[in-house]
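User: My collaborator sent over this chain with a note saying "see what the structure looks like." That's all I know about it. Can you take a look?
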Amino acid sequence: MIRLCAALTLCLALLAAPLAAGPIRIKDLVEFDGVRGNDLVGYGLVVGLNGTGDGIRNAPFTEEIMSNILERLGVNITGEQFRPKNVAAVFATAELPPFSRAGSQIDVTVSAIGDASSLLGGTLIMTPLNAADGQIYAVAQGTIIAGGAAAEGEAAQVVQGVPTAGVIPAGARVEREVDFELSALSSLRLALREPDFTTAARIETAINSAFGTGAARMLDSGTVRLDILATGLPSPAHALGQVENILVEPERKARVVVDQRSGTIVMGDDVRISRVAVSQGNLTLRIEEDPVVVQPNPFAEGETVVVPRTNADIIEEPGIGLAEIDEGTSLSEVVAGLNALGVAPRDMIDILKSIKAAGALHAEFIVR
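Assistant: Without extra context I'll predict from the sequence alone. Here is the result:
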């Protein structure tokens, strides 16, 4: 086991403190079957842009939708050609929350699909939002709040953020409700976000302790079935209102996640390492070009030439010597020890990979 005599430095590695997870509400561990949102999408037109809209020749679909809207409004545009720069074709997306009722409002995200340079100050014209079944569930309209800025001059331009996308808070009104009757259910499935047999068994035990034996049954590592009638409550809504607040201590897999781009290491306190020896060092190959110019003697015939000369050298940088890790040492202690020895995050990730390849790291190893 690596013993530390100096203060620990985190450098670019993030060490997870060995703290107990503690009891967590069931509502934070599971998804209730049928209680879900639905994605909506629509194709519309944004107007009122300050010369930052689509170029009609580069985006002919903008001209088509604009013509259709004007014709529906009774404007005859047959044979006319439009070349405005204050309109842009966009996709409007939204999520229909569960149990949304007709007349309620939801947020809308608007994104340009043509060559518009900015949607700042634009207004989305009435746009139907369809679900996967092709039915219209909401209609969006309103002023866009874009999260960026753009400015340009004759020879340069600057862009901050993404001005070609924005949101309309409460910009869509629900026109159709999803046909789902929660009150008609006699049983309901609880789907675990992180499937685990131990966690599912603890959820079953906690629910049965609250409502009596038979109220819940574990079907597999990711599903627990809730018997609404066995709870003795008048409706599924009452049952879910009490079940979701029951506390359960979840069980987690031993897992190590490393990000090679930032050198970040995240791990759980239950990660363990078997007895293993580690030795690490770095080799640096240095190549320097030092050409020499050779000139002929005075009054002699000849040409000036450049003679190439290359200096190549291999330098072995100091690394860590042979370090022995005892049985049962936690990975957080190992990483803390490597940090104290001045091991760079990139080298630390390579060491962890090698320990995993040697079969001494008992955890799921994820590299991003």
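A starting point for your reply to your collaborator: The chain is about 15% helix and 40% strand.
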